[in-house]
Specification:
The termini are far apart. The strands form four sheets. The chain has an eight-stranded parallel barrel, surrounded by six helices. With about 450 residues, the chain is α/β, with parallel strands linked by helices. It folds into three domains: about 55 residues, 3-methyladenine DNA Glycosylase II, Chain A, domain 3, CATH 1.10.15; about 250 residues, TIM Barrel (Alpha-Beta Barrel), CATH 3.20.20; about 120 residues, Rossmann fold, CATH 3.40.50.11600. Helices cover about 40% and strands about 15% of the residues. The chain binds iron/sulfur cluster. Iron/sulfur cluster binds next to helix 2.
Length: about 450
Amino acid sequence: MALKGLDIFKLTPKTNCKECGSPTCMAFSMKVAQGAVDISKCPHMSAEAMATLSEATAPPMKSIKVGTGEAEYTLGGETVLARHEKTFVSKTRFAVNVTPDMDIDAVLAEANKVEYDRIGEKMHAEMVYVACNGDAAAFAEAVKKVTGKGKTIILDCKDPESAKAALEICKAEKPILNGANASNYEAMVEIAKAAEVVLGVSGADINELYDTTAAIEKLGYKELVLDTTGANVKDTFATTVQVRRACLAKDPDRTFGYPSIVNLSKVAPNDEPMQIALASVFVLKYGSIVVMDTMNYARALPLFGLRQNVFTDPQKPMKVEPGIYPINGGDENSVVLTTVDFALTYFVVSGELERSGVPCNLAISDAGGLSVLTSWAAGKLSSTSVSKFIKEEVEPKIKCRKLIIPGKVAVLKGDIEAKLEGWEVIVAPNEAVQLVKFLKDMQANGEI
Ligand code: SF4
């Protein structure tokens, strides 16, 4: 049960010393109750009060770190069921499924071909899921093949001895040991604790998953992920959604407050279209890790785009830093184009400029992270803002005095020219894709 501000206030020192940044202990308590401030911001709380409050005010879903170095990822930590309520925080990670009888190097090589670049974010399959087929020696060999490959490893192994041997090979990479169930959880907890790795828990159904997780928590281990994969698509979806709803309900049940693994190689084996469709569903509906047979561009294009859209914070515009971006070797004598700092606009325009092969400078001014027409309508892209930016940031660095403005704000041309003495203002076409021909023609005619 979440604590109210008054409950928290009773445990504070009530000295109103302001060291937490709040004017009074009561104000601080109200902020903690809303989740706006962490309880640790008060340096005068007794250890006893801290222990009580840390547990009671902890987020309902635990954040779990897995992997190391560049392959370290945070899973979970979500606070809402729907992205529009606030934001989702830890994006779904994709894992490629391998088994000891496969050509593992070939599977990894195929997955590694995919490096999908969208709006400045490079995306790839981050994890590899190694499923044990009952042959401990073959499993260990498979684990050797995926170790040191820059992917977070998930070991699917229910046999404690095989799991222990596999962890000896890869534990330095902080893999997930997805191996605990109702019959082996005590041994698996010992192994995961000793290797300091995250433990995956599964159950024959949602009730068994709950009971096993509760039993593991009683043993004092809370570095967990829940394998919500069921016997079929329907069970998997129902379990994954119910687990998330239970932990983020108004009165949360923290036994289910962990990230999830959904294994599509089990529920839709060798069925690429179905795996893509299901992966899309589980990006939206609560898969922290989605395991698939492979990763290729047919899968990456829809899935990475969807994931990026769902896991961006709707309260924060996607922006690039204002400044001058030289393209195709643009220097101080190259033409200047300007557009807004909305990330999608920047990457679309800069891509087309690169395609033109014409050396140029892309000048990005602060337009509040909005698109061209929206920022113009909001008054954030105006002749004043553009001319001020050009005078202050561009003129000291660039000798060329030709400025190309977006076609959609052609109406600003006269005003900008009036405010920018010595500059020739040229209106670009309406669509970014037309920039290639536009610039090439200008270059051929000796205009730039
Ligand atoms: S730092 Fe602690 S004691 Fe001081 S005002 Fe904040 S809550 Fe009260």
